[in-house]
Recover the amino acids of this structure.
């Protein structure tokens, strides 16, 4: 099959800054790619790297792809490219080949249908505001707190305050982004291991410390994120929770098939994609919620600006870029 390859760059500012223990950012850049087959079928993908050094690498590699290319040659060429490029190309090919069929609308707009990212500058005030809004709804709500941004003593004090105030209808996810030592991670695990509000600790230890993560997972649910990106084989080996970000994996069709086959302990998370990438997030999240271990996805809906870039209509996004 012969293809026409085209790309367009995008950039936008988030509504508020996103911080974790490794980095912080307010703006996001990337590319939308469009593949057109010789029988006029169209597939869209999104190249959505998170780091500046990856942006430069992706820009150079995207420029190596010719406008007219045979599908086999393209698949062979991208095998050595950045995972975000592989994800975008494989996403577009999946759409062309009918391996994924998106719905016209997905319903993740309400407060209880996606995880709410707490403001690390004032966690308690943010949580109280969410509790106030949530009390009018009466449904389970899930919040995510990114830790290891302050010294551990201060964050343990915040944790103690959270646990003294948190309601039964609030679920808590705590993400250290790989920044804790084993001593600190075990302290938090001991504090939280019998708490019914906790969903999991996300990537509490360094990506390389698989032994430490495995031991922690015996105490409390541990969700791997960055470790899965560095060691993709863990996707098949890790028995605990997995934070899966389709735009960062080489082929999101694998994740699609896992969810279609009802694989458990998967949680879908955003890397701040436009509406092109969000189609995958919404579709996969819908499948996850129908699986054996349903959990609301981490889509950070409160961080996105109002823009055509986040429409659920690929052609409109492409045409307006």
């Amino acid at each position: 099959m012969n293809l026409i390859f085209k790309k367009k760059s995008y950039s936008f500012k988030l509504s508020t800054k996103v911080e974790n223990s490794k980095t912080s950012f307010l703006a996001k850049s990337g590319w939308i790619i469009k593949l057109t087959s010789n029988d006029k079928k169209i597939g869209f993908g999104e190249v959505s790297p998170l780091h500046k050094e990856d942006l430069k690498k992706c820009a150079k590699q995207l420029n190596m792809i010719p406008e007219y290319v045979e599908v086999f040659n393209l698949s062979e060429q991208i095998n050595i490219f950045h995972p975000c490029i592989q994800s975008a190309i494989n996403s577009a090919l999946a759409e062309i080949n009918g391996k994924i069929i998106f719905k016209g609308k997905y319903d993740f707009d309400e407060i209880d249908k996606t995880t709410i990212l707490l403001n690390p500058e004032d966690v308690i005030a943010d949580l109280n505001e969410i509790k106030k809004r949530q009390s009018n709804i009466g449904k389970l709500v899930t919040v995510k707190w990114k830790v290891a941004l302050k010294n551990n003593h201060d964050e343990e004090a915040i944790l103690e305050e959270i646990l003294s105030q948190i309601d039964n209808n609030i679920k808590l996810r705590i993400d250290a982004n790989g920044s804790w030592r084993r001593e600190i991670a075990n302290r938090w695990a001991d504090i939280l291991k019998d708490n019914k509000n906790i969903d999991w600790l996300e990537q509490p230890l360094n990506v390389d410390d698989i032994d430490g993560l495995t031991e922690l997972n015996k105490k409390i649910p541990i969700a791997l994120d960055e470790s899965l990106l560095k060691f993709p084989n863990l996707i098949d080996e890790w028995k605990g929770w997995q934070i899966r970000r389709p735009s960062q994996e080489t082929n999101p069709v694998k994740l699609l098939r896992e969810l279609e086959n009802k694989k458990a302990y998967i949680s879908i998370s955003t890397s701040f994609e436009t509406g092109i990438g969000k189609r995958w997030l919404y579709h996969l999240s819908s499948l996850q919620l129908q699986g054996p271990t349903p959990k609301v996805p981490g889509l950070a809906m409160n961080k996105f600006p109002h823009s055509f870039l986040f429409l659920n209509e690929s052609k409109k996004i492409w045409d307006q870029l």
Observations:
- Residues 275-289 form the longest helix (15 residues).
- Residues 111-303 form a domain with the TIM Barrel fold (CATH 3.20.20.120).
- The CA atoms of residues 152 and 184 lie 8 Å apart.
